[in-house]
Amino acid sequence: MSRKILHLDLDAFYCAVEAQRDPALAGKPFAVGGRPDQRGVVASCSYPARRYGVRSAMPMARAMRLCPGLIVVPPHFELYRQASEQVMARLHDLTPLVEQISIDEAFLDISDLSEAAETIARRLQTQIRTELDLPCSLGVAGNKLVAKIANDVGKGEVERDGPPQAIKIVPSGQEAEFLAPLPTQALWGVGPKTAERLAALGLLTIGDIAQWPETDLARRFGKNGYDLARRARGIDDRPVETERETKSISQEVTFARDVSDVQTLRQTLRQQADQVGARLRKADLAGATIKLKIRWADFTTLTRQVTLSQPTAQEAIYAQAVQLFEKVWTAGRPVRLIGLGVSGFGLPRQLGLWEAEGPESKQLQQTLDDLRARFGDDSIQRGRDLTSGTNEEETDSESTEC
Asked: Where in the chain is the domain with CATH 3.30.1490.100?
């Protein structure tokens, strides 16, 4: 029996939530992100803004030049998380086989449902729009690869000023035929460099890849060559994964102005260590690898890491981060971005009563976590941090890698 896979993508999700928060934004060119005079970046943009060439990940200053009347809206991540949870709850009401791959995107396996996949997709789209006032588009196919590409193609076929709210169906057995005319970069695993190498062979479409000898693709591209050959024929046996293993948790900040003050940099690392540690403890995780990321004023970026003998979710994160920082930073050198991550998860070591990370320390840390969760990250601080300088209009980002 052929599978029935849905790929759901919320259309301009951040903007849709912001338009709910402020209905005056509806129909206007606006972008969610940082301020243009503070190195802001477009996180999402409305469809009227896209007509001017504004796109996600674009510097906000450039977006303002393309669209002089662009309204810039600061992000409200807690609202986005709440809206995402409401959408995902409805997907889980439909089937337990849901794989959430981002805050606004998910796969569903509805193979066990008797109704036609298109019927289910249209009802789900209507439900999310009616109950949550959120537009979404769906791709429907026999596997995850083709369903995702179908969604992208479906949205591209809709011409309107607002959300596409597209539904694209690829019938079982027609996967290769559907993919054949699409450009090679529409295929997973084909980035700009791979596309250039394929073009040098005269392979410009997915169909061209499908017709090329698989053994030659493997010789030229290694294991990726075999994957390219299978994907080009629309073959993808991967299941919808209801649980995804977390591989790393990180936090980074891009400063509004380059920072060369050591106290500010150390305080930033302290805050990041607290935030990463809290997320680790909330997920009942501990990591052995501490990773520091620094970007200098000239955009040069370096990473340094250390692996501990035992996993931790406590004070050792900050201690190791500072040691890595002091090894690479020279006094007065300006920093544009600094980040801290933890990976290499395992079980934390059982410690004695009087050790630094023992039960009393963990109880205190849990109390601090609870206070910050209730009253905000700045509600309680260490005394030594109170006199440290700050840099306004920083841009934070957090990441959980799966």
From this structure: 248-401
